User: Fold Arachidonate 12-lipoxygenase, 12R type from Callithrix jacchus.
Amino acid sequence: MATYKVKVATGTDLLSGTLDSISLTIVGTQGESHKQLLNHFGRDFATGAVDQYTVQCPQDLGELIIIRLHKERYSFFPKDPWYCNYVQICAPNGRIYHFPAYQWMDGYETLSLREATGKTTADDSLPILLEHRQEEIRAKQDFYHWRVFVPGLPNYVHIPSYRPPVRRHRNPNRPEWNGYIPGFPILINFKATKFLNLNLRYSFLKTASFFTRLGPMALAFKVRGLLDCKHSWKRLKDIKKIFPGKKSVVAEYVAEHWAEDTFFGYQYLNGVNPGLIRRCTRIPDKFPVTDDMVAPFLGEGTCLQAELEKGNIYLADYRIMEGFPTVELSGRKQHHCAPLCLLHFGPEGKMMPIAIQLSQTPGPDCPIFLPSDSEWDWLLAKTWVRYAEFYSHEAIAHLLETHLIAEAFCLAMLRNLPMCHPLYKLLIPHTRYTVQINSIGRAVLLNEGGLSAKGMSLGVEGFAGVMVRALSELTYDSLYLPNDFVERGVQDLPGYYYRDDSLAVWNALERYVTEMITYYYPCDAAVEGDPELQSWVQEIFKECLLGRESSGFPTCLRTVPELIRYVTIVIYTCSAKHAAVNTGQMEFTAWMPNFPASMRNPPMQAKGLTTLETFMDTLPDVKTTCITLLVLWTLSREPDDRRPLGHFPDIHFVEEAPRRSIEAFRQRLNQISHAIRQRNKCLPIPYYYLDPVLIENSISI
Assistant:
């Protein structure tokens, strides 16, 4: 008689436990056990519990390879979901086998789990193991399907995670919106989250934290009449009255210094959209800036051509914004532009704007604005640039290049990599809650009652159109971080803390990925001969890049270095890249004039006409400002249940070498965090968005 000691760990999140009956079957290389009910006197499988059981078998089962968990109805109790962390079994010879689950069992079902050792197809020789991985992939592909949300954007998971809100008129005096949160000024499909598969949803704690903070701020705005006010702000200082309750040092700095040229230039380096600026070696024909125009701002003894040759001139070009129609907000037509901004990096180490053109087409009705123009002309020109920054950041750098791409990475992984695959184990922590937050994002941003419809000049179609155009130009090389800095000519630009910190995190991540990949893929042939890996890569190319060959995204990987680069890009995109464009979002956007989402007057066609009154009349009205602030505050505040980069409480790897690599990765991140904090002590504006302790493993907000 062989005795197996079994430990079953239930998740720690509220409601993880179950009252259903759980049985276990153990499968080894020399046979399998009978199905045995796991039952003690009293409560089993309570939240956070690690229950211990004994399974008796007539004979030794050999090496344990698979277990089956059977979830069945208990007595008269209704169906009760259960979150299983893992099952651990001690064999008669003392060897301990780990079977990671980290997933929900919702209905009455059987869940088959493999022993935790990471294995590719080439590592499996037993027919039962090969059949198991094929069945797992087949089942997931039957469950998860691709769906087109907006033609031209990455496809997303086709499950009922989002349904267009439907207005009901059962009582004409009290019209209700499906999923409408009372007092919240835009339409949200609140109930949609319950249609998500449990394994893709927020935890109970994170859900409660996220949704309970929507109401109070919206209610405060409503009570004060701000959500019904369609008038202009009377004074700039009045905008401070809608600041969220907890203000940071950076947010207050932005409100005080937003109009200064030095801070305007600083944001290109260390703001929330630090990946746009590029070195300018030749003034483009569409931006006819002359030496006479800008010479007074370059310093003595130099000229525009000399500064171009020295590499001190930089360009922010918003050409991708050109040509989109605008909508009406609060009954007033909104306006749009695609500006160009020329900047100079001076000997004092500051990036300063020296010329702004509010159109991609020069002409007599498109003057080039200069720092020497009137105060309000120059300030409004800079504000138009900051308006374009809103779309460059929110639509491209944030939503498209992190959220939507990461969701495609996630879905392709779920559909093509079995849980035993080393790449699945490596990537799964970096996909946590991404589908959930993207479902919320689609419901909040991209629907006819959402933020893009009620708070942005471009509306739903224009906002989506910016992303479609950006995806059509996205390249694989641009996602490889070191290449991006070199291609933009900013690899040696002083004071570029975003670059310094992102490269430090990238290098630590790349080293970690290298150690993990080379452990499981000892040669190029192992990479090229992995059909599951190749299917994952092919599906990303097809469903995320929409099969566009000009993107440079690979359709297959043939060498170990190619795989290391690819996986590093995926994990960086899902973690640090998102942190760089999301964590500081509220600090830089809370002061609306620094980041307006709409503009109510057309771009200036002549100089000398702008006053304080016309400036205030161009900015968004009170209602639009509050709507935008409320939504951005909601989507940028990190709820509870965070997992910082490098912290992997779910044990997917059990081999010693990968475990050592994980610990070494964590230590390197700690060193980076310490260095960032020491540097920030000496900075007037601390840059901490890429401090590893503030970077989430995944995109979860």
Q: What stands out?
A: Residues 375-416 form the longest helix (42 residues). The longest strand covers residues 96-105.
